[in-house]
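As a point of orientation, let us examine one representative protein, giving the amino acid sequence and backbone structure tokens.
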Amino acid sequence: MPAPAPVPTAPAQRRAQWPAPAAVLELLKPITWFPPIWAFGCGIVASGAALSEVWPRALLGLVLAGPLVCGMSQAVNDWFDRHVDAVNEPQRPIPSGRLPGRWGLWIAIAWTLLSLGVGWALGPWGFAATAVGVALAWAYSAPPLRLKRDGWLGNAACALCYETLPWITAAAVLSGGAPDPRVVLVALLYGAGAHGIMTLNDFKSVEGDLRFGIRSLPVQLGPDRAARLACVVMAVPQAVVVGLLIAWGAPFAAAAIGASLAAQGACMARMLRDPRGLAPWYNATGISLYVLGMMASAVALRGGAP
């Protein structure tokens, strides 16, 4: 008769409740860190600061924008969306059980506190921006506000956090004061355009959104109308940036962004034939052109130029 299996000791049972590091990393979604890191990089360039003199603050800001604040927002969203993810993405760490118990919530809280601490180290501008970003991240996902229940408000909050806020923060932190109004205006315009990017991201979760009453724009308007709206919302702010750069004496940057916008238009025309099927393709093509235009604008505005 085989010997009975040994009963796990209490320490072994406790260890089994700790999540695997890979599951924690997946919760923080590293693939989503790129947009705020890129926007912060645009702010670094637009600030005109000599990187050799400010690189420690610049590096700390990049970590804050991506792995910390953006990672925190993903953890918050996954915790409060765990019932929706059970339908849309059951393989995610929380609905799959790879993050047991309330670990998703504890990680979201810990990353929030860590983000605020790093923001404090970047001075008043850095802390204020971090506090705004943290507040919007929780308001987006958590009751009672849960801004994501409405596609207009939720996408606006995301666009502000992903594009406008990191750009303005970097320009302020590295220049040591309030950023140039032109930098703020361009950052706001690219943030407005990012509202359309967020709409395209919602196509992947239409079924779960319908089931749980999340009124994303594809749910409210239908896929075709939502896709057309997203294209207009992405294109118009870039056209305004082109006009502003011409008025500010930066014709080469304006021409580069205009060419990028024309190429995006061709990609949009293809995407509109099958919005749900081709939205991921557009995210890999048209959005790449969009963010290159952001950097071209930042270079044109560097240090108060032109």
